[in-house]
From TrEMBL:
Pfam families: CofD (PF01933). 7,8-didemethyl-8-hydroxy-5-deazariboflavin binds at residues 48, 87. This is 2-phospho-L-lactate transferase. Homodimer. The gene is cofD. GO terms for molecular function: LPPG:FO 2-phospho-L-lactate transferase activity; magnesium ion binding. Its EC number is 2.7.8.28. It catalyses: (2S)-lactyl-2-diphospho-5'-guanosine + 7,8-didemethyl-8-hydroxy-5-deazariboflavin = oxidized coenzyme F420-0 + GMP + H(+). Its cofactor is Mg(2+).
């Protein structure tokens, strides 16, 4: 199975999938459009979250970073008047240093990620969406800013006017992602932000055409008219989409076979038929590993029914 992932909602679903499927059967294609360089090192937040999940290091209270990490380097830099745009843990920073040194030595982001997976003892196939630089910028009333400045620096508060995924039209789908798509016809789009987490992946040249030939299931990150977490609502609205499960399904409709939305959502299952896809209700609020496993089992069962 191939899973398209951002950094929060989808990793919770991956937490269930890795309980019921052999990890070597899972290929996770991860958004890299939120990556940025901090203090000389490449930070890849969504990739790191997935790496830490599969290596049982993730801080499950925050769903990012390493559990019980310390922040002595960050604090010391602050004491010396050096302000970093992200609060990086010490062990987390080691990951960034290793990645960056590999890239400076000539490795691609894919090669660096594969090596980090090996260092962490991970059997799942974790891959960046592209080896080319892609960056998401948010247009706001306070100016244009990198996604991390908008979400981490400004806490997602500025009103959003638009989203610009820079470099995506010139980027290529990573070679190992293409190889995985050649071998596997099951694609799961996790409940990550459709605009800035999944959007960059499906906006890579040729990706939508590839997905049209696959069995594609997507899980909604929206319940009613609000996202489960994060700024998806603001971003969808700025891109002209209705903030609802229907809005998410419409965004994916050209390649979508089955759409899974929350049992608490009042959307009409039959309304999705006009988009050319099936719809199924489930409990998508993954408040524990057990809940994640139950949703994962439900989705795996649906794949067996997709023609």
């Amino acid at each position: 199975m191939i899973i398209l992932s951002g950094g929060t909602g989808t990793p919770k679903l991956l937490d269930g999938l890795k309980e019921i499927l052999p990890p070597e059967e899972l290929t996770v294609v991860v958004n890299t459009a939120e990556d940025l360089w901090v203090s000389g090192n490449l930070i890849s937040p969504d990739l790191d979250t997935v790496l830490y999940l599969f290596s049982d290091q993730i801080d499950r209270k925050k769903w990012w970073g390493i559990e019980d990490d310390t922040f002595r380097t960050y604090e010391r830099m602050h004491e010396l008047g050096i302000e970093e745009s992200m609060k990086l843990g010490d062990r987390d920073r080691a990951t960034h240093i290793i990645r960056s040194n590999l890239i400076r030595g000539g490795s691609s982001l894919t090669e660096a990620t594969v090596k980090l997976s090996s260092f962490f003892g991970i059997d799942a196939n974790i891959l960046p969406m592209s080896d080319d630089p892609v960056s998401t910028y948010i247009e706001t009333l306070q100016g244009v800013m990198h996604f991390q400045d908008f979400w981490v620096g400004k806490h997602g508060n500025p009103d959003v006017l638009g989203v610009d995924i820079r470099g995506v039209s010139e980027a290529s789908v990573a070679k190992k992602v293409l190889e995985a798509l050649e071998k596997d016809d099951k694609v799961l789009i996790g409940p990550s932000n459709p605009i800035t987490s999944i959007g960059p992946i499906i906006s890579l040249p040729g990706m939508r055409e590839l997905l049209k030939r696959k069995k594609v299931i997507a899980v909604s990150p929206i319940i009613g008219n609000a996202p489960v977490s994060g700024p998806a609502g603001k971003l969808m609205q700025a891109c002209g989409l209705e903030v609802s499960s229907m809005g998410v399904a419409e965004y994916y409709q050209e390649f979508l076979d089955v759409f899974v939305f929350d049992e608490r959502d009042r959307a009409d299952e039959f309304a999705f038929e006009r988009l050319g896809c099936q719809a199924s209700r489930a409990d998508t609020l993954m408040t524990s590993t057990e809940k994640s496993r139950e949703l994962a089992e439900f989705i795996v069962g649906i794949f067996d029914t997709v023609s």
